[in-house]
Amino acid sequence: MNDMVLNCKAGIAILRLPQPRKLFALVWLVTLAGCASLVPPLDPPKVTVENIRSLPVEGTGPRFLLTVRIVNPNEQSLDIAGISYAIELMDRELVTGVANDIPVIEGYSERSIDLEAGVNLFEFLRLLASLGQTPADLINYKVTAKVDFRGLLPTQRVEKSGEINLR
Predict the structure, then answer these.
(1) Do 142 and 82 share a structural domain?
(2) pLDDT (tens digit per residue) in 125-145
(3) I need a surface site. Which of 9, 91, 152, 159 has the fewest CB within 10 A?
(4) What residues make up the domain containing 116?
(5) Whole-angstrom Cα distance, residue 50 to residue 65?
(6) Contacts with 93 (C-beta within 8 Å, 6 or more apart), sequence order
């Protein structure tokens, strides 16, 4: 190693160590590699909407209570710090919400939870107007959710889309 040199001057041994920047970079890379191996691979949770109920209006516009089922297909428990979610109909984001009081979902289990959501009234009116102009037999939908976990698990994004047949 060129950076490690042992000099002897007047009977005193002097050991020259690598430059601090190189040493710091080496320690940082080793630490980063160790942390990356601590995070196990995670299959995304499966999220389905089971029920939608309207809530009494309290001055902020229409609110809904969504009951969603979260399936944990992983061995480790999901300790969810928060969820943000949205529902689109015909490419219009109509329902949005956030929640941070989600119970822990044990490994290989499922749980139904209730989430409050608000309606974008202007987008809803635009959707009704577009349906009045061009009636459709099928309405496309998309449910998206961003799930943040406590601990070392990475954020998961979940998306489900499809069509609703009106006939």
Answers:
(1) yes
(2) 898 888 878 777 888 999 888
(3) 9
(4) 46-165
(5) 11
(6) 86, 87, 120, 123
